[in-house]
Amino acid sequence: MLSEQSLSKAHRAPGRAVARGVLLALGIALCFMPHAGSTKPKEYISYKEYSLYLLDFNIKEYKCLAALYGKESAWNPSAVNGSHYGIPQGKSIYLSTLNGYEQIQWGLDYIGHRYGEPCIAWQHFKDKGWH
Questions:
Q1: CA 82, 86, 91: angle at the middle one, nearest 5?
Q2: pTM above the 0.85 mark?
Q3: Does residue 55 sit in the same domain as residue 111?
Q4: pLDDT of the chain along its 131 residues, tens only?
C-alpha cells in the first residue's frame, strides 16, 4: 500500500518531467526562430529558390530569370555596374539598401511592369544587351 508521502512523490515526478520537456521545447524553438514575426525569408532559402517561389514555380520563366540575373550580376546582391545596383542591376540607388530577397522582389516587379514576364526581358537582353 502506498503511503501519502510516496503517493505525492509519484505524482510530482511526472509533472516535473512534463514541465522540463515543455521548457526544453520552448528553448529549442526560440533558438531556431531568428526572424519570428518577420516577413523576411529565412536565410537558408537561396536567392534562386526564392525567385522560383515568387514565380509560382514556373520553370520556363525561372530559367529566363536565372539566365538574365546570371549575366547581369551573377546573383550577387552587392553587384554594382556604374549606376546600376544589386541582383537585378536596376538604375536605382535604393537597390543598394535592400537585401537580396527584396532586390529580387523589386526586379520581378520591374520586369512585370516593363516586359510582362522574365522570358521577354531575357529576350530583350539578348537582343540589346540590357533590360
A1: 50
A2: no
A3: yes
A4: 555 555 555 555 566 666 665 655 555 555 554 544 445 555 679 999 999 999 999 999 999 999 999 999 999 999 999 999 999 999 989 999 999 999 999 999 999 999 999 999 999 999 998 88
